[in-house]
Amino acid sequence: MVGPGGPANTQNPANQGMDVDHEGKSYLKKPELFDGNRREVDNFIYACDLFFEGSSDKDFPTDKQKIIFILSYMSEGEAL
To answer: Which position has the higher pLDDT, 54 or 17?
Structure first.
């Protein structure tokens, strides 16, 4: 359904595959952008895993879709 900001999940590729309510709001907290800091890699992986566990299987039915989602959050610093 279309929310107040337009169609849900169409502006940012990282938003694809998210559970949304009728207003286009996610029930799940998305991972923070990862900047390549090796001290934070475990936290980033944990946040992504938690996001996938809370998502419906139909949102990320393949490993390829999960990888693309994760790569879209590796967009700062050394993670580029």
So the answer is: 54
